[in-house]
Amino acid sequence: MSTSLINTKLLPFSATAYHKGDFVEVSEQDLLGKWSIVFFYPADFTFVCPTELGDLADHYAQLQEMGVEVYSVSTDTHFTHKAWHDASDTIKKIDFPMIGDPTGKITRNFGVMIEEEGLALRGTFVINPEGEIKVVETHDLGIGRSAKELLRKVQAAQYIATHDGEVCPASWQPGEETLAPSLDLVGKI
């Protein structure tokens, strides 16, 4: 049985990412002070992964407007990320850092390593500016994720972070009513 990472702090890491034509160093410190998404995927040059990363790239501008940075991570190297970026029209759309984790340290920190294969599960983590994990979503390798649904989850996490005492009901969208948990609501929803 695994332990939930919800509300835990980021563990230290340091890695090299491919980002906008350069290799850059990234650490947990880069995630502090803003909302972040850490988006694990199994491997470059595969099948479901480019569909997910392309979908996320299509929503990246909106996430940036919300003050969110995205970091994709696989156990490939930053060199492989560059080669994939150069070879694939879908991956060329990516403007967020693509972190290489060939040692698997970051992947293990987030509990999504498939040890027998040296690959990451499809894991998505939303992290607040204080470095606390607020959303954890993990999928089996054959199940692709939706950037649109991830965007909604980030909006809900940001909303409750600034509206003490309120919670977002199922399928909540910005502008819709929230709930204020109280004894009066018990059994009435």
UniProtKB/TrEMBL annotation:
GO terms assigned for molecular function: NADH-dependent peroxiredoxin activity
InterPro entries: AhpC, AhpC/TSA, Peroxiredoxin, Peroxiredoxin_AhpC-typ, Peroxiredoxin_C, Thioredoxin-like_sf, Thioredoxin_domain
rRNA-binding is among the record's keywords: no
Catalyzed reactions per annotation: a hydroperoxide + NADH + H(+) = an alcohol + NAD(+) + H2O
Alphabetical UniProt keywords: Antioxidant, Cytoplasm, Disulfide bond, Oxidoreductase, Peroxidase, Redox-active center
Domain Thioredoxin: 4-159
Subcellular compartments: Cytoplasm
EC code(s) of this entry: 1.11.1.26
Main location: cytoplasm
Family: Belongs to the peroxiredoxin family. AhpC/Prx1 subfamily.
Subunit structure: Homodimer; disulfide-linked, upon oxidation. 5 homodimers assemble to form a ring-like decamer.
Function per UniProt: Thiol-specific peroxidase that catalyzes the reduction of hydrogen peroxide and organic hydroperoxides to water and alcohols, respectively. Plays a role in cell protection against oxidative stress by detoxifying peroxides.
NCBIfam families: AhpC
Full protein name: Alkyl hydroperoxide reductase C
Originating organism: Pseudoalteromonas obscura
